[in-house]
Amino acid sequence: MAGIIEKIPMLRAGSKKDKGSKTSGSVTLRVYRSNSANGNSYRYDTFDVPIQRWTTVLDALLYAKAYEDNSIAIRYSCRMASCGSCGMKINGRPRLACYTNVAELESPVITCQPLTNFSLIRDLVTDFSEFFRHHKSIKPFIINQNADLMTSEEVSEFIQSPRDVDEYLQFSYCIKCGLCYSACPTVATDVRFLGPQALAQAYRYYADTRDNGSREDMKNIDDKHGIWRCHFAGSCSNVCPKGVDPALGIQLLRRHLTSFSKHDKKIAEMKHHGQVT
Amino acid sequence: MLQERQIMRIHYITGLAALFVVAVHILMRLIVPYHTSLQFSNVIANYHNFSYAVLLESILVLLAIHGFNGLRVILLELRQKSSWENGVTIFTIVAMIAIIAFGTRTIIVANGLGVG
Fold it and tell me: Which fold has domain A129-271?
């Protein structure tokens, strides 16, 4: 951290000048301003925002909104990279505003733009309808016709070994922030492409031994605009704030769909009345 | 109609197979001096060699299938309309068949099997 502070002149100057003070300097915040209801015109508003070592881009935006222009539109909620609401392009790269420390950007000017590949609502707020429609289309839940959780009086047990969990665990960390979707070059050209998030989630449930594999036959994944249109650019994995590797999930699902590898998927083992069926 | 996964399976297999046969083809050109290799009489002699003619035919078929499917994939990304997609599919299949037919004819004629 000290190394980063040394690289930023205004932080270094601020830390010497205001030794003992909480304020460490300031950055220039350039915020994309547009309202889709008023046409396609846009502008960048500039704000000088005081920063501290722990100031995130979301903190800076909220400062500008609170003290300089309360009409800035931002979507945010948890402020701890759990809800995935505050995704935006920060200095040209899709990031979570709450998870991006101003100091780590190493730039005196921070440009905030809405996520690309999403239609704009206002300023930094984008429309996630299409993104969630793609997500829902892959049925992001466990499908198991053999499960008697709803009908039987005695609930069955799904047995999973730690190895089974490892097959899909990293993909279950997805917070649906849309950064991978925004970074994907195929989504930019093919509006019907499901996108890395939905496809990685398809693999997440496909690889889950509790799921009985009926998702394999889903036509929207194995479609002209489905999983085969991924170019493997890898930018989705590069921008994921949760360490998920959607590109890997897509390749693994492709491998299973082409049957080049035998999928060791097991029908969920259930203990029913003490007997494995 | 083939499923997309079956098409892509063919795409990957033809790609890998084409890599192998083209490598063999290039190696066969490299083991003899360049001017000798491409002299008219040597080229015709190659075509008369049945194994070599089969190698050329396999290169033709594999590259045509792989290449035209690749073209279909690229064109599908340009527009997302069913009429465009159907048109692209029909065009690439027809073009692929035409190229394979013309190339096969050339190999048969050069091989001296009696056509033309």
Answer: Fumarate Reductase Iron-sulfur Protein; Chain B, domain 2 (1.10.1060)
